[in-house]
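WARN  no MSA supplied for this record, continuing single-sequence
INFO  ligand: heme C
INFO  echoing inputs
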Amino acid sequence: MKNHVLRPLWLAIGLVLLIMVARHFMVPEDFGVHGDSFTYNYYRLSNVDEWKDFPVKYQGRERCSKCHEENFESISHSRHKKIQCENCHGPAAGHPREVKQLVIDRSREQCLRCHALLDYPNSRRGMMKGVVSEKHKRKFECSKCHNPHNPNLEDR
Ligand code: HEC
Ligand code: HEC
Ligand code: HEC
Ligand code: HEC
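INFO  complex generated
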């Protein structure tokens, strides 16, 4: 065979060998020992324990109810009953022991995340009560007039 054919051939064979050697040293020992039925065996077993140690940031509203009973009660019977406390107050991991206070964000943007009027006639988001920020009492924070834990237009 001619040189210009042989050289790239050796190069290709060399590359494949190199990858095989590298793979031998780099793939962790517990990779692919889980059995074929599990993600086609494309899986590292010790990854399970790594995720078990992953700190959970969100606690869920049931936990809040133990100490903030009043807010929990009022929101549970309001139009906001579906919204998790941590949606507005941020993740509560470590609260109240290490993190004494959670964020209280009174900005208009906080509420406009959900209440900016959007014209999506066929979606549930479009059906939600919304306001055009520039036209709706724009000098004040929303919570001056609407109780975030019990927004109720009848009281207005
Ligand atoms: C074991 C009791 C306990 C639990 C559970 C708890 N909190 Fe608290 N929280 C406290 C205490 C104590 C404070 C400090 C109160 C203070 O300084 O007036 C506080 C403060 C806060 C504040 C700030 C109040 C302020 O006036 O600045 C917010 C917001 C808050 N918690 C939200 C939550 C949310 C949301 C949850 C659930 C994810 C939660 N808390 C779970 C005890 C608790
Ligand atoms: C829609 C956003 C929103 C949700 C959901 C929400 N909050 Fe609040 N929260 C606020 C805002 C805004 C304030 C500040 C209200 C004010 O200053 O009038 C506040 C104030 C507070 C305070 C301090 C003042 C007080 O009332 O004691 C606590 C504690 C609190 N929230 C706990 C909770 C808990 C517990 C939940 C869930 C059961 C919850 N919040 C759900 C927006 C929210
Ligand atoms: C995570 C999304 C979300 C956030 C953030 C949120 N809301 Fe709501 N809000 C809702 C949903 C869902 C409803 C109930 C559906 C509806 O009435 O259109 C609602 C209903 C309302 C209503 C109408 C109540 C009625 O009687 O019809 C008012 C007023 C309101 N929210 C004010 C606020 C204010 C003020 C804030 C900020 C403190 C806020 N919302 C933050 C989702 C949200
Ligand atoms: C000065 C008091 C005041 C402030 C501040 C205020 N609102 Fe209102 N809001 C009202 C009143 C009164 C109504 C009922 C009459 C109307 O629609 O104007 C209302 C109505 C609403 C409605 C229902 C609209 C509908 O189609 O029925 C929503 C949603 C709402 N507000 C959200 C907000 C949000 C979000 C903010 C902050 C960005 C905010 N409001 C700030 C007084 C206020």
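The CA atoms of residues 14 and 20 lie 10 Å apart.
INFO  checksum written, moving to next record
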